[in-house]
């Protein structure tokens, strides 16, 4: 089982650092990052993260609203 992280901020001015740090601390071995509004449906890194997952893997986010 692999823990796969997904970090997203909604504007280019925001930083991903805190989310990445927490995901690494939690044990994520692969982290996908995105600087894009959640209102956009075309989130390439989220798609990549979901495609990367294998049976038994877990997708981890800093806060559930990062998926929204």
From TrEMBL:
Identify the PROSITE patterns for this entry.
RECOMBINASES_1 (PS00397), RECOMBINASES_2 (PS00398), RECOMBINASES_3 (PS51736)
Q: Which residues are responsible for catalysis?
A: 10 (o-(5'-phospho-dna)-serine intermediate)
Question: Which ranges carry the Resolvase/invertase-type recombinase catalytic domain?
Answer: 2-68
Keywords in UniProt for this one? DNA integration, DNA recombination, DNA-binding
Q: Indicate whether DNA-binding appears among the record's keywords.
A: yes
Q: Which Gene3D superfamilies match?
A: Resolvase, N-terminal catalytic domain
Q: Which InterPro entries match?
A: Recombinase_CS, Resolv_N, Resolvase-like_N_sf, SSR_resolvase
GO terms, biological process: DNA integration
An example of a GO molecular function for this protein is: DNA strand exchange activity
The record, for SMART domains, names: Resolvase
- Tell whether DNA-binding is among the UniProt keywords: yes
Provide the family line: Belongs to the site-specific recombinase resolvase family.
Stated name of the protein: Resolvase
Species assigned in the record: Bacillus cereus
